[in-house]
Amino acid sequence: MDTENPTICVIGSGYVGLTVGAVMADFGYTVVSVDSDEAKTAHLQRGTLPIFEPGLDELIQKNAAQGRLAFTTDIQGAIRRADIIFIAVGTPSTPEGRVDTGAVEAVARSIGQYVNGPKLVVIKSTVPTGTTERVTRAIAEELARRREGGGHATTEDNAPSAVPADCDVEVASCPEFLRESTALQDFLHPSRVVVGVNSPRAAEVIRRLYAKVNAPFFVTTPINAELIKYTSNAMLALKISFINEIASFCELVGADVQEVARGVALDHRIGPSYLLAGVGFGGSCFPKDTRALDWAAQDLGLEMPIVQAITEVNERQKRGVVHKLRGLLGTLAGTRVAVLGLSYKPNTDDIRDAPSLTVVRDLLAESASVVAYDPQAMRHFRQVFPQTTFTADPYEAVEEAGAAVLLTEWQEFRDLDMARVRRLMRRPVFLDGRNIFDPAAMRALGFQYASIGRV
Ligand code: UGA
User: Fold this and answer.
1) Is the residue at 227 inside a domain?
2) Which partner for 121 in 20, 135, 171, 331 could form a disulfide, CB atoms 3.0-4.6 Å apart?
3) pLDDT tens for residues 235-279?
């Protein structure tokens, strides 16, 4: 294995895989990015990204043009050429909320089938505790099968491939902490790099790969690394659910959650981050990972009431939007409601587990008609709720509306001419689900204004 100038293979072309591949290529390594989705790979080969992530398309195009980054569906070739293999495939939720690690396991089997020399496998996907060990075992099983002549792996000439004597494959866990919408910045300037390894050598290889990343390098065991990822996400989600719960209390006693959070945040033991009250958290990580941790505990016979409450409070927060609107309007039946913002947060087109999904479902259940605008996410949203009317800009969305609800704090919404919005609406009921406007200023404009945790 060339550890000085390794060739890298990244399996999975989602947010994490594309970012890892692009940055590693930009560091000067040769990177092959693999995905089984042919259409997605064809787009990437032409320089078109399947996701909206600021700055990532330029970085990919630059490194592809300079010959350091290529895209393929040929997993066999990519595995054989690589010294280091990153696994960055999705680990979605099953319908009941457990983690589906099928894609990770399938990749592990492929590695075992095609590996042709010493490699380091680095798991980037968020995976339940014990997965690094299971991946190690799956690779070893496939190798054993090949050694027994099972004929699983084939070389280009389609003959069963012999297993080279020196076929040492170590598997490490290196959870990723980047956020969508700031993926590149987060990858290049993380608060820490966590690596879970079984040998100092593997830690050293990863440390070298991350040489240009200036952050504490935390070396631990694979199982600890896996749990650090879940604990981090659950802790951040907990902060949000907690401040949202305090917001509900604020509304009853006439306090202002933003002021309360500001005062609390001055205690450096608590800190200011993830204390913005709103319509609840969404995305492909917090909801999925807190549910997964809960299931993992239940499977072990352990009750984790705090972890359960994170999800319960978040569900209540999302459902609370339509509840609040009903309180303001009396009935929603037949009301034209403008929904501003569909993505789970600004600067992404991602609507996975977004609060907008719950809100629009609840609005439709109340026989309201929904007119929506989002700068990036309408394409995805249309696939889930085709009965929604989409508009070309936010002003068109609020025209003749009987109420408006803001669900995502896009800059475009902060910049709105609210006097114009007020004039366009049939009834100026405005529910600001992200607390971006000043209540007094909104009321002065003539809005019947409500927000989260502020009176
Ligand atoms: C989250 C974590 O922040 C990343 O560290 C992690 O790597 C990632 O999940 C993952 O596991 O892949 P992400 O889901 O991209 O990142 O987005 P965040 O910016 O953390 O926001 C998540 C949700 O929390 C959004 O819906 C956002 O609106 C909400 N949020 C965030 C609040 O409601 N209040 C806050 O104060 C902060």
Assistant:
1) no
2) 171
3) 999 999 999 999 999 999 999 999 999 999 999 999 999 999 999
